[in-house]
Amino acid sequence: MELSSPLTYAGDPRAAADRAAGLESAGLDAVWVAEAYGFDSPTVMGYLAAKTDRMRIGSAIVNVYSRTPALIAQTAAGLDAISEGRALLGVGASGPQVVEGWHGRRYDRPLGRTREVIELSRRIWRREVIEHHGITDLPLPPEKGGTLGKPLKLLNHPVRDTIPVYVAALGPANVRMTAEIADGWLPFLYVPERAADVWGKALREGAAGRDPALGPLRVVAGGLLAIGDDAESVRDLMRPTVALYVGGMGAPGRNFYHDLVSSYGYEGEAVAIQEHYLAGRKKEAEAAVPAELLERLCLAGPEGYVRDRVEVFREAGVTMLNVTPVGPDPARLIERVRSWL
């Protein structure tokens, strides 16, 4: 099992990137950079590439609507070049709030767009001459307004012609596709005890059509990390995040995170969180997040307990434990967990 940490889209990106880079010597294998509707992730990833030597650098995620497939492939190849082969491309469909509310793009065909981005990116990295007609047309045909476009290939020679592609997926159809064609999977609000019940069927169905050359699907998941007799209180730091996603990301009947938490067995709690959040009662929404869910999402408690949690994530199929260290000495926390892996 490898060890990584997420870089969130809130706060000072330079300071956050410096902190993440400082964990490289402690044993961190990778850092994942979020974007949403904050600062763009490629800029921060380029900065991280200059500040680190060994650690891999991934997007988590670049959505498949706001950039063309070609630009996503170019960006990943550029990061891979300046980092000397350390790029990880994390993509996903995001959701209507970001895609429609921030980018002004219609949220349609999320699975088709994700599949198209992956397939085109891999062709572009191989420097194929690209002619493709699907959701995206390359080149743009005359009947859609094209004039002088012709098939092209990437000007540069990539450092690698196979950059690992990870997909953020929650719903069964998306998870099925991820297990079929992606190098790795980036689930969110991952409860390892429930993973097989919620996603097992989709993962098996996708794996049945998987190209053996891809190797086994890599799984990146984890949560807040704190070790100590009083570390259980750290779990409460997750309350605002869970309330935001379960309550505020979407609308009643169309919220992926609400559906996920409901599938874990917290349907009544998910309804309460959403009702409070959409009514503007954010503190009440946070209070409605069940303590048991927070415990399962985190790795926080005495050392023996946290070591057991690491094994629970491992047994669930997680290949890269993605943790946010909380405490006065994050590097020491990373070193301790690294020694267990």
List keywords for this structure.
alpha/beta; 14 strands; TIM Barrel; eight-stranded parallel beta barrel
What does this structure look like?
The protein is α/β, with parallel strands linked by helices. It folds into two domains: 2-223 and 302-340, Alpha-Beta Barrel (TIM Barrel), CATH 3.20.20.30; 229-301, no CATH class. Helix content is 45%, strand content 14%. The chain has helices at 13-22, 41-51, 69-82, 96-101, 110-125, 172-181, 192-208, 239-248, 256-278, 282-287, 291-297, 303-315, 330-340, and strands at 2-7, 30-33, 56-59, 62-63, 87-92, 132-133, 137-138, 165-168, 184-185, 218-221, 224-227, 299-301, 320-322, 324-325. An eight-stranded parallel beta barrel has the order 1-2-3-5-8-9-10-13, surrounded by seven helices. A three-stranded parallel β-sheet has the order 12-11-14. The longest helix has 23 residues, at 256-278. It is globular.
